[in-house]
């Protein structure tokens, strides 16, 4: 599978660079399918572009809509109804989701910029699995108008590119209010990162290059068990918001989902107001610890994913282990950038940079050190 949705033609790009748009984001005159044929059948074509598409049209030409996991509630890149797009960078392995199609077409060279969304890692995971740059901007910095929501407290539009120059060109169209693109002063690699020795070893060359420029700190982020406490709280709040976003449609249309999405929505339907409130309290405390540690001049470095892409049809990646790493940025509203700066057994493996909210430009400057 190419990564483009099968029900729309792929257009030529008579001017500028080619933009591929995840099929939860509106493009005027085209349907938005949200990864599910029932959604496609029950929603009209978009009357106008999503705000993010409208801004990017100043430098990019929309050539097509791309696959997404069902309602964007997955991180694997698989879809019960439409299958799994081929991973051009790791044959026979999943591309990562839910911005699966956007990552695939960019990695294959069929588009220059992939536009997707990131709630729990849906830009950074496919970037890691397919060897791309994947930017999750500061929450709220890029408008979400015209995008099918999942969990609005965490949803952001994000970008996928093969090179930093294209990423910079795209961000220049999306915002004009940024800080200077200067390096942070401190490099933070928490000693308590919940990662394998293989992941730590794969990151080492990138860490060494950054440590040559920045002051290295290794103090822990959380108390023992804190990473799992945070992941569980994030999962609860995300589920509560996903159910709020889609329960009326699910109850009215009774759509069929794949097993993973089915299980997540079943859990979401059972989250109580008390559970959600308690989980939000955990998120506030965890975000505070992270932001105090980062300060205005720090960058945290961690793997974008715990491991490279799993084989299609295998047991798959451990979603909890992925979310344990990827939930930091959405919890804090912080920008995060997956950089294709490592490999494990010859497979792409992203190194993720995370900074304080509003410090998106410093991530791009930091990535230059690794390029």
Element-by-element helix/strand order = EHHEHEHEEHEHEHHHEHHEEH
Residue runs with pLDDT of under 50 for 5 or more positions: none
Strand order of the largest sheet: 2-1-3-5-4-9-10-8-6-7
Alpha plus pi helix count: 12
Radius of gyration: 19 Å
The main β sheet shows up as: 10 strands, mixed
Shape: globular
Question: Helix content range of the residues, please?
Answer: 25-40%
Structural class: alpha/beta
% residues in beta strands: 15-25%
Could you list some keywords that capture this structure?
globular, 37% helix, alpha/beta, 371 residues, single chain
Description:
- It is a single chain.
- The chain has 371 residues and is of the alpha/beta class.
- 37% of the residues lie in helices and 16% in strands.
- The protein is built from 12 helices and 10 strands.
- A 10-stranded mixed β-sheet has the order 2-1-3-5-4-9-10-8-6-7, with helices on both faces.
- Helix 7 packs across helix 10 (319-326).
- The model has no long low-confidence stretch (mean pLDDT 96).
Summed up:
This protein is an alpha/beta fold. The chain is 37% helix and 16% strand. The radius of gyration is 19 Å and the shape is globular.
Topology:
Blueprint: E1 17-22, H1 37-42, H2 51-56, E2 60-66, H3 100-107, E3 113-118, H4 124-130, E4 133-136, E5 156-161, H5 164-174, E6 186-188, H6 197-211, E7 215-217, H7 226-253, H8 259-270, H9 273-294, E8 298-303, H10 319-326, H11 328-332, E9 336-344, E10 347-355, H12 360-370
Parallel strand pairs: 1-2, 1-3, 6-7, 6-8
Antiparallel strand pairs: 3-5, 4-5, 4-9, 8-10, 9-10
Helix pairs in contact: 7-8, 7-9, 7-10
